[in-house]
Amino acid sequence: MTDGEGVRLQKVLSQAGIASRRVAEKMILDGRVEVDGDIVTELGTRVDPQNSVIRVDGARIKFDDSLVYLAINKPRGMHSTMSDDRGRPCVGDLVEHRVRGNKNLFHVGRLDADTEGLLLLTNDGELAHRLMHPSFEVPKTYLATVLGSVPRGLGRKLRDGIELEDGPVKLDDFAVVDTVPGRTLVKVTLHEGRKHIVRRLLAEVGFPVQELVRTDIGGVALGDQRPGSIRALTQKEIGDLYQAVGL
Q1: What is the pLDDT of residue 97?
Q2: Which of 25, 28, 110, 237 is such that its CA lies 20 to 30 A from the CA of 83?
Q3: Catalytic residue IDs
């Protein structure tokens, strides 16, 4: 790229919502910004935001206006599909009137109808494919309400691995969050994507799931997002997802 072509790097970062222009300039001077594999520390650097690979703190920043990245809190009782030939409520109903071109969106990480929580939607096919592929081991976190009182040592047993009918599974993390008479709220993190895997795993060790909510996928958290609500991912969240799957 010759002098005068492209857009100043700090302006690109500012327009992408990474930081104000002044903060973006400091990021560049501090060596936190990389363009096409090279760290850039000169403020006058011009780039092509559509074709250059730009990373901040190692996380890739995307600038393609045609790409959509959404987080939905899927309500309980709703199906994860974009359409349903039996007329059942589905995620497609939520986005139909709010997102242009929703027919091209992929849902990342299906949730069964009885499970509430975080579902990602995107038309970025490569990212969606990698997020769903088990080889990239993107962690997912759930809050599960189970019957009974969880004994000490169950977490270690689950982290060591449990044999199910379709093969072994083990948790990355397990913690008791709260207890009330007859019930326990636990947090589980795993990178498995098999159908009903959390419910099957906890049932196998004697703790049937009564309620299940997915709270995190990689670096994206549900936070205080209400059931049925939709929000756009931040550039940082998109960058974290790209980093997690090696893009």
Answers
A1: 62
A2: 237
A3: 112
Complete DSSP assignment for the chain? --TT-SEEHHHHHHHTTSS-HHHHHHHHHTT-EEETTEE---TT-EE-TTTS-EEETTEEE---TT--EEEEEEPTT-BSSS--TT---BHHHHHTTTSTTGGGPEEES---TT-EEEEEEES-HHHHHHHH-GGG---EEEEEEEES-PPTTHHHHHHH-EEETTEEE--SEEEEEEEETTEEEEEEEE----TTHHHHHHHHTT--EEEEEEEEETTEE-TTPPTT-EEEPPHHHHHHHHHHTT-
Residues 6+ apart with CB under 8 A from 174: 154, 155, 158, 159, 186, 187, 188, 189
How deeply is 30 buried, as exposed, middle or buried, from its count of CB atoms within 10 A (0-12, 13-18, 19+)? exposed
The yes-or-no verdict on residue 215 having pLDDT over 90 is yes
Q: 100-128 pLDDT, tens per residue?
A: 555 578 788 788 889 999 999 888 888 88
